[in-house]
Amino acid sequence: MALIQQEFQNDPWKMLVGCIMLNQTSNKQVRQVIYKFFEKYPTPESITEDSIPDITERLRPLGFYNRRASTILRFSREYINKENDPKNISSLYGIGKYATDSYEIFINGNTNVEPTDKILMRYLNGEFIEQ
To answer: How many structural domains does the chain have?
Structure first.
């Protein structure tokens, strides 16, 4: 089974939202919510302040749902405003090392990164990753 980042590598915003969802939770848990989340919110523009109660409810199975919802909203706003500057992805709210490394690997095709995340390390080493 592909990593979530692989599944969404053709849509940088979705891939990064997936990384936010993956923070401190498992692929299995994220897979339970991510597809329906993107059915409801297919673009960063589709997320508004009015969406927060619904987003919070959709993210409830992941834990930290209030924080995740506000992070995704703020990230999406910044993403819209900085979309033309992919070199500064790490300056966006909610985007840390894991998401930046994922962006480099899956969006930019740069495998010369040194992730600290064990799944990303295994992926770069060509090891089979069971989800």
So the answer is: 1
